[in-house]
Design goal:
It holds the Pfam family FR47. Keywords: Acyltransferase, Transferase. This is GNAT family N-acetyltransferase. The protein has 239 residues and is an alpha+beta fold. It has 7 helices and 11 strands. It has an 8-stranded mixed sheet, with helices on both faces.
Length: 239
């Protein structure tokens, strides 16, 4: 796929990346009731409702999740009923790969020292997440897509992977490096390797990042990502 084709890719699916993924390539990992949807337990806490949901749709989502559970609405702007307790609000941005700046290495070079992480590495992945806090990651999150890592003497010290998959796009997420392994370019190499794989499939990479994480934003910009829009991540507790 040429850079011009990538640059012209329709971005409308990115307005509702959770809902688009749950209705499409992640349908096998979804739970649904009416127009409400969420991921299976242990995969992700992200939930989706339609544009302008009514009270019945919020009731369906509450029934899917159960009482007192987290409804992670991600970047959805819809406001739940007043008896849904706010849990968190985080300002962030959605960034898309420009399709004009290559990630700095040929694919084979980008993957030097990179290993694929599967179900047999979940305990190590969860341990690294606990140390670095890159964002939500659960025992089955690796089922959302390909996860890659870097090892140091057999110990997992960095990783990144694929998360939401709206039509034509794949999100890069869980980018993290252990404190003792930072400054070695692991995050850049992992993101570059994922970009190369995603583009090779004819898709376009995108990602989300907290607005306060200026170091990460600078890294992604160096790798060819540009800001598409500002977003607010919100979570609520069901009644």
């Amino acid at each position: 796929m040429t850079d011009s084709t990538l640059a012209g890719r329709d971005t409308a699916a990115l307005d509702d990346p959770v809902g688009q993924a749950l209705r499409g390539r992640h349908a096998h990992l979804a739970r649904r009731l009416g127009r409400a949807a969420t991921y299976l337990p242990g995969v992700a806490t992200f939930a989706s409702v339609s544009v302008g949901p009514d009270a019945a749709e919020w009731d369906d989502l509450a029934a899917l999740l159960g009482p007192g559970e987290l409804a992670d609405m991600f970047s959805c702007p819809a406001v739940p009923p007043p008896d849904w307790e706010p849990v968190f609000t985080l300002e962030g941005r959605q960034m898309i790969w420009s399709g004009t700046a290559r990630p700095g290495h040929l694919p084979a070079q980008a993957e030097t020292g990179v290993v694929e992480l599967g179900a047999d590495r979940v305990a190590e992945m969860l341990g690294l997440v606990a140390r670095t806090s890159p964002g939500p990651f659960w025992p089955r999150t690796h089922e959302l897509g390909t996860y890659l890592g870097v090892q140091d003497d057999g110990v997992l010290v960095a990783m990144a992977g694929e998360r939401l998959k709206p039509p034509g796009w794949t999100e890069i997420s869980a980018v993290c490096t252990a404190p003792e392994a930072r400054g070695r370019g692991h995050a850049a190499r992992l993101v570059a390797a994922l970009v190369a794989r995603i583009v090779a499939r004819g898709e376009r990479p995108f990602l989300h990042v907290a607005e306060a994480n200026t170091d990460a934003i600078a890294l992604y910009e160096r790798l060819g990502f540009t800001t598409r829009r500002k977003v607010t991540f919100r979570g609520f507790r069901t009644p």
